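Q: Here's a chain of 1598 amino acids. Please give me its 3D structure as tokens.
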Amino acid sequence: MLKSVVFIDAEISVDDNKIHDLGAVKDDRTYFHSASIRDFISFISGADFICGHNLIHHDLKYIRAATESDLQTMAIDTLYLSPLLFPKRPYHALLKDDKLQVEELNNPVNDCKKAANLFYDEVNAFFALSSKLKQIFCCLLYHHPEFTGFFEYVNFRPYNSNVPNLIRSEYAGKICANTDLVPLIRHYPVELAYALALIGADDYHSITPPWLLRNYPKIENVIKYLRNTPCREGCEYCKDALNIHRELKRIFGHDSFRTYNGEPLQERAAQAAVDGKSLLAVFPTGGGKSITFQLPALMAGKAAHGLTVVISPLQSLMKDQVDNLNSIGITEAVTVNGLLDPIERANALERVSNGSATLLYISPEQLRSRTIEKILVSRNVARFVIDEAHCFSAWGQDFRVDYLYIGDFIRELQKKKSDKKPIPVSCFTATAKQKVISDICDYFKRKLDLDLEIFASSATRENLHYTVLYKETDEEKYSALRDLIAQKNCPTIVYVSRTKRTREIAEKLTSDGFPARPFNGKMDPNDKIANQEAFIRNEIKVIVATSAFGMGVDKKDVKLVIHYDISSSLEDYVQEAGRAGRDPSMQAECYVLYNDNDLDKHFILLNQTKLSISEIQQVWKAIKDLTKLRPSISCSPLEVARQAGWDDSVNDIETRVKTAISALESAGYVKRGRNMPHVYATSILAKDMREASFRIDQSALFSEEQRTNAKRIIKSLISSRSIANAGNDDAESRVDYLADTLGMTKDEVINSVNLMRQEGLLADSLDMSAYILANDTENKSSLILDRFAKLEYYLLSQLTEDGCEFNLKELNEQAHSEGITVSSVKNLRTLMYYLTIKNYVRKSECGSSKSVRLIPSLEVSKLIEKYRLRIELCKFILDVLYAKAHELSVGEGDEKPVLFSLVGLHNEYKGMPRLDTHNREVALSDVEDALLYLSKIGALKLEGGFLVLYNGMEIKRLVTDNRIKYKVDDYHFLDEFYKQKIRQIHIVGEYANLMVRDYNEALQFVQDYFQMDFRKFIAKYFKGDRAKEIDRNITPDKYHQLFGELSDIQAQIINDADSKYIVVAAGPGSGKTRVLVHKLAALLLLEDVKHEQLLMLTFSRAAATEFKKRLLSLIGNAANFVEIKTFHSYCFDLLGKIGSLEGIEDVVKNAAELIRNGEVEQGRITKSVLVIDEAQDMDANEFELVRALMQNNDDMRLIAVGDDDQNIYEFRSSDSRYLRSLIEDYGAVKYEMTENYRSKTAIVSLANEFVSSIRNRMKSTVIEAVQNDEGTVSITRHCSKHMATAVVNQILETRGSGKCCVLTNTNDEALQILGLLLKNGVRAKLIQSLDGFRLYNLLELRFFLKQIDQSLKSPVISNDLWNRAKKQLFEAYSGSPCLEICKNLLRDFEAINPTKYRTDLEEFIKESNYEDFYDDEREVIYVSTIHKAKGREFDAVYLMLSGNTAMSDEEKRKLYVGMTRAKDSLYIHCNTNLFSAFDLPGIACSEDNNEYGEPEEIYLQLTHKDVVLDFFKDKKEVVFQLKSGIPLFLTDAYLSAELNGRSVRIAKFSKACRERLQTLHERGYIPCSASIRFIVAWKGEDDTKETAVVLPDIYLRK
């Protein structure tokens, strides 16, 4: 009798979980379609069976709940029958995973018909099975509700039979004959049935459907138990299918495994993997590592339909391995990495999903992909293989934080699979010490409770001979390299440490007749492959490479490996040298061309690339700032970097940010995810695929490519509808999953989805959020928009079609001069960032971000058109979103998440009445542009929707307490890794030195390194102090050179790396400058401080230059990247202006305010260490700047050096109490430097006695002279008011060969002394500034700048142009006394600026003083005021103190400074009782009762105030014929010069000058000669052009 079946289907709403529609079809084709549950029950009543797809655990559940009764009709579910009866690819045409394939949505009748077709196919398939298999399935499944109905329908019932025997008989030769089947039959009958169905498919690429694995995860274990677990007895199946020797021959064609000196490591490790064990294999380079995991992987794929996942950090190596397998006909391997285009990626993922791939190569970063996670959950993962496993260990040569995520991922994967049995892992590394092996084993025991079996070789390569040749210079190295290549004439690999060197040396060798090619990780991939292939095919014999070369390259005839630069570790060296002699029968040679500087380069590179604790703290602070109002954010790595204050032009900055976040994640501070929107099938507004296609074709919104993309997306969404309805997994609705599986980019998916929403094919979704604070106002956002709109228009107006190069500070100043006062470098960078990510311009940074080149990608007029539309849209968006925000009610200070959609905004804008100012329809992409713009300029905080394309990283903050900082303990792993890297560099250097001395001892050294306990190894080879030396980031020789000759207190200061704040109270001559320079060197070389994280502030350009020059001589080129600036120069930088000594009144105050207001580019103020020179001279504004920097950088260290006894600038508001505040208010550690290396004992004794009466001194220790000589101190007490003659007489009597200086109280006194010295034929120079004189205006320097500017083609001055301009200057002004100053200035600029930027030169000149560039001439007497002499030192000092009583502390400090300038001799002339009370040994006191008159001669240096400036306005041509130093003569109120045989008036005295000359005339002084001191540029306030002004010297005599 035929049995009646009704096929049913229910449409369940995902919103309310209720039935919205019902369908049923009977055998006679009559059907039911209605939402009435009563009519539905009536229609199906009387049927013997009801049948549907996913009926029993889904539709029936809702139908029963709706009827409130239990349906008695027996149910058949086609879902559970399908994998049983169609286990083989291509499976059933109506199925995809758990879904019926339909092209129409929400039509239950259509679904019933599909289910009926599927059911009858399943019936036919069942009857086509063998009788034994039918009985096996029935016995195993009959009593399970998912199958009972079916077996009743086909009239099958289980009968008592020996099921194990049935299975063994049916599956003879397909499963292990010795498997105990009884427990499986009893406990896992369903899983066993499905496993047998798959095994019986005889297609190992067929896989268990993902939905089935989710419901029955033990299927994987059952298959593994039946087919992939070798039995001890050795049945026929196991001896055949699980025989590694047979499979090695069958798959790879090899007769045997490779051995290492007779050790069968490869075979043992492969067998362990086949036996299901977890293992760690330490194989040497070329040791056949790949086959060791590829063979078990391919065997597991065939036996258990398993997938082996290989995790490797090297993307190119993954591709090479896949290509190598393909080349020998093995197509089961794929790689998914960042080098693939979307279509390649989709194809690879599809092959993993459908089972055709059994080997998947991925990088650790890919484990964070939800697509990868979903696919791995759906496959039977047989094993994880981790290549380069030393990356787990801080003691390995390449520790990677992202490796620490691997264990967490595997554990979570096992949870998702509900599998208690761990997935085995195989770890591989080429070289590993005992500690590294221990770390790897401990990691997997801790994370996954796995015990790794270790396979390691103790054998060494017998066919390699090692030689180290010590070479002093690069020239010697290259000569030796060329000789070796010529002598050996064989395939050669030359290893260098820097990518740039690969090209340079390859080119040099080629030009010398030895064809060579470069190879490095930064080359174009096609060039890399071409060069590698040329080497492998012997088209060239030499390849010059970084360590990236050789991994996975199987070239057996390399007979020579030369390390031009030694490797950074023994592990790397052994691995790289091991690429020679891959053929064991061939002898090969390995050379190292070595000198100790190689190690210094490695130390510098390590310091540049390491991620310091302070940088991780900066990223943590940035995340805290970004998550102030909500615990999770979506952003890009670049935005985190900018918030952290990192320079976004630094290489690999995104990788560094991700590494920092991984470190924070590993320490439990954050959790990182991937932010992606969803597109659900339930939002489809078309009845079926036909309607959707028709509407897409008819729409004018889509391009042809977009039409194709939209149809594919709709089709994918329809096919995944049951998942969306069931709500059991939302991965297939994620944009990234759609992109991955359809071979599109994420932006193509998002653009297509938005267009379909606009067309009405998809329901609009409020998938975007604007976060608006309750107290925010639209006005605030509008002001930000207005500010940026004005600035952008200005920026676009400066662009040319060919592109422009901008100096950001110059551009900012120009914007201000054009009235755009809101301009700042920070805002300019923000705009450039937006224009770049939109691809409107191409941007390249030049020279540490000093200048930027912008090249428009569109016509400038188009850019301006886009700009105008965007700003209009932005204003509209702000109106709409703030209107929505006002409708929400939240607490004060809370954020309002305003939900909206892109399409909704677009429709609102189109529906708004307005006058169109543009000539085209506003597209959806225009609204996108406007939203992105508002987000990037900070006018609105926006998330979701298309913004995920720009903010692809989701960071969830786990530690919410803002006070909690990333700690030293958290940094332990990275810290240990970097310490070990330092030791490895020392160790490889020791190996090189040993190899030069004793070959056998060096080989023993290597063997001990890898096999001994590390502590025992160090104890053996680095005894005593050497054990400490190898912990320093510097060679012992370099350390001794830098720090070996410091005093105890100097060494304490330099070695203090723990104190957050340090104040050094440094007495005169105590080596303050030396200590600071060496401290800078220590910070850079020994500690974690990167050059961009270090800032030193001084009070003069001369001091900054001196520090830079000394640092250069100490540490070399690295010093060029250290920021050493004056307070004013640094603040000009913050304000985005070019530094100058003019207009500096409020620059520091304004900069501090900008920092506090958050208006400064974060990268300019994010610092790890701040060093301040002459800190006693800080005023309130400068201290406020320091405090602002301290508050902006929570963990910033500060080192302030100064001497409160030398604070002599109180007249300009400097005060040493600010230095003292660092100790009293901030807890700074105080050091006192009281050893005076400069002055002899008598000078120090007098200075100590004199300074002791000053109140509130910081130093508690008396200054001590280091020298034993007494020196000369002479104090002469005068009765006369005038002492200048007496001073000069003493100079003439006592002057020795040393450097001398006369110090006075006033400028007039200094001029008197100068006049007398010159009268007596003594060469003398005045150290003095002229009022209104600026060095930048000096004629000679203006001439030089003009020569530069006439030929300058870029922001950088070429060496040729520089030298040409110098030559022209020297020729044009050969007789000028100013030429010496110009030469010295240019020399200093060259010394500290290897790359000469035009703006740097201008800033250098503008910030400098004329007197900064005097030569230290011993035959010259220097004359100065005491203030001007501060910071200088002289062999002999003559102090003329007329009328001094030193009643105030300020006056005492000034005189103390004057005394302490003297090294050997100090001569004091005074006419008060200032020194009467001093009675000290070694001091000669005398009285001079002579009455001296005024000096016979007076020397006047005229300033701008002394000449009539307007007089020069029509005399530019005349003045330009003059030079400094030429004589002048006086005629009435004029100065004249002889030009071309006639007298020409060239200057006119001002009224004030004439009155001064008259006064002097009344005192008997008559002008007797004059000369030009300076010719300078000058421009009056109302002038448009500059004028050349003459500033003369006048010599007057009584």
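Q: Can you summarize the key feature?
A: The chain is about 45% helix and 15% strand.
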